[in-house]
């Protein structure tokens, strides 16, 4: 299977450092895929888990809160550790934790066990995805955006696979718990495969980990002029991404769409994003990543308002294709460039970016939408965030030519 993936993903076309072998590269690319499939199953099967255990909506909410709260604590700590300690144990724990958490959710006899399963998943997600992201970027310094685009394309397939699997299970009368068992077993197998991965050593293995060292590293990251533009860009991308949370509500409440149409709209947009990520690799052969971000940002600045303000549900379904196609390249380029900004502190930078989830962006947007209306708020937020993002990146101070020369 490894040679097949190497061919399909065109990994041999990328310049990779010798410390990471081909098999390990393929394994790391599936870290976010595993995360997307697992989280997608827990979200889509939330109603099923609730009815099976007789939980209230509040209890199910606490399960997801346990996942997010544990992740908010673990991910920044993991980020600092990535730069200092061996990476393989972090990856193995992340995959094994996902397996254990999904199996706990599948077999949970009551609320307490389900809560524990979600908490285990929260502790596993960061060590798996952040470590894989950092190692991939470190090992492909001359092709940062191209390796990031492949990782994002694969996790987009995972985002489509989870709801599709639930739909098929329901169609053929398969117990939905079997999906969690299969996914949990696959995650445990993935952990065993990662146990033999050949990985580069941490860039600062001689530095003793500790709270004081971690705080010093965070301060250095925040002060570094190479990292600041990309960190600011990631914050602005999180603002742009708010539409994903409120778009379904807007389609139903304002446009008058059905729940089925909302699902079709989401799947269509995700498929368009996948196509955009496939095309991104071709664009990156001829253009710099920052140039592509600026071009896609400008295109999104036009296409998003057109999609938002054009009447008719079927018109919106057609317009979501070009909209999501041009917006898809933003995340992998911004994430990859941010991690590449500081090669010896990429893990710390990943930990800093994980703290973005603590910003009350969704609550602030909801507060604005309640007063100004959803349509006006979506338009205002997207236009303002896009304009500021473009201005920030025009003045960014990151050049990948040095990284290309380092290979």
Topology:
Blueprint lengths: L1 H7 L13 H8 L1 H14 L1 H8 L3 H26 L5 H20 L3 H29 L4 H28 L4 H19 L16 H13 L4 H13 L1 H14 L3 H28 L2 H21 L3 H15 L2 H12 L4 H9 L6 H12 L1 H21 L6 H6 L1
Give a concise summary:
The protein has helices at residues 2-8, 22-29, 31-44, 46-53, 57-82, 88-107, 111-139, 144-171, 176-194, 211-223, 228-240, 242-255, 259-286, 289-309, 313-327, 330-341, 346-354, 361-372, 374-394, 401-406.
Tell me, what is the CATH class of the largest domain?
Answer: Mainly Alpha
The number of domains: 2
**Coarse shape:** globular
> What's the helix count?
20
Largest sheet: none
Number of strands: 0
Instruction: Find the CATH superfamily of the largest domain.
Output: MFS general substrate transporter like domains
How much is the radius of gyration in Å?
21 Å
**CATH architectural category of the largest domain:** Up-down Bundle
C-alpha termini separation: 28 Å
SSE series: HHHHHHHHHHHHHHHHHHHH
Strand content: under 5%
Judged by helices, strands and strand pairing, the structural class is mainly alpha
What can you tell me about this protein's structure?
This protein is mainly alpha-helical. It folds into two domains: 2-207, Growth Hormone, Chain: A (Up-down Bundle), CATH 1.20.1250.20; 222-406, MFS general substrate transporter like domains (Growth Hormone, Chain: A). The protein is 79% helix and 0% strand. The protein has 20 helices and no strands. Helix 7 (111-139) packs antiparallel against helix 17 and helix 11 runs antiparallel to helix 16. The longest helix is centred in the first third of the chain and has 29 residues, at 111-139. The chain is globular. The model is unreliable at 400-407 (pLDDT under 50).
């Amino acid at each position: 299977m490894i040679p097949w993936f190497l061919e399909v993903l065109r990994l041999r076309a990328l310049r990779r450092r010798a410390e990471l072998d081909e098999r390990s590269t393929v394994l790391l690319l599936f870290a976010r895929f595993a995360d997307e499939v697992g989280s997608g199953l827990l979200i889509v099967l939330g109603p099923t888990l609730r009815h099976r255990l007789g939980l209230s909506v509040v209890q199910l909410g606490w399960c997801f809160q346990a996942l997010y709260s544990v992740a908010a604590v673990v991910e920044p700590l993991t980020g600092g550790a990535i730069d200092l300690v061996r990476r393989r144990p972090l990856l193995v724990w992340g995959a094994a934790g996902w397996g254990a958490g999904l199996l706990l959710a599948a077999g949970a006899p009551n609320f307490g066990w389900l809560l524990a399963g979600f908490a285990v998943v929260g502790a596993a997600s960061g060590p798996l995805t952040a470590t894989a992201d950092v190692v991939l970027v470190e090992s492909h310094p001359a092709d940062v955006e191209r390796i990031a685009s492949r990782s994002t394309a694969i996790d987009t397939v995972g985002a489509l696979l989870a709801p599709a699997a639930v739909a098929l299970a329901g169609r053929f009368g398969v117990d939905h718990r079997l999906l969690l068992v299969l996914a949990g077993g696959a995650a445990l197998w993935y952990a065993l495969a990662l146990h033999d991965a050949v990985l580069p050593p941490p860039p600062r293995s001689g530095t003793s980990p500790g709270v004081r060292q971690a705080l010093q590293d965070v301060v250095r990251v925040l002060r570094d002029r190479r990292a600041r533009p990309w960190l600011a860009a990631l914050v602005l991308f999180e603002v742009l991404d708010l539409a994903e949370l409120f778009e379904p509500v807007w389609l139903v409440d304002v446009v008058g769409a059905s729940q089925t149409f909302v699902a079709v709209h989401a799947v269509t947009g995700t498929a368009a994003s996948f196509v955009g990520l496939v095309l991104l690799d071709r664009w990156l052969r001829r253009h710099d990543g920052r140039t592509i971000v600026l071009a896609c940002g400008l295109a999104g600045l036009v296409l998003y308002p057109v999609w938002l303000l054009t009447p008719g549900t079927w018109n919106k379904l057609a317009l979501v294709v070009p909209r999501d196609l041009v917006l898809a390249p933003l995340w992998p380029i911004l994430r990859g460039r941010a991690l590449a900004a500081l090669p010896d502190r990429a893990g710390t930078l990943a930990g800093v970016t994980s703290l973005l989830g603590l910003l009350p962006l969704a609550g602030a947007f909801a507060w604005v939408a309640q007063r100004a209306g959803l349509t006006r708020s979506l338009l205002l937020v997207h236009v303002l965030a896009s304009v500021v993002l473009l201005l920030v990146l025009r003045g960014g101070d990151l050049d990948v030519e040095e990284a290309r020369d380092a290979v």
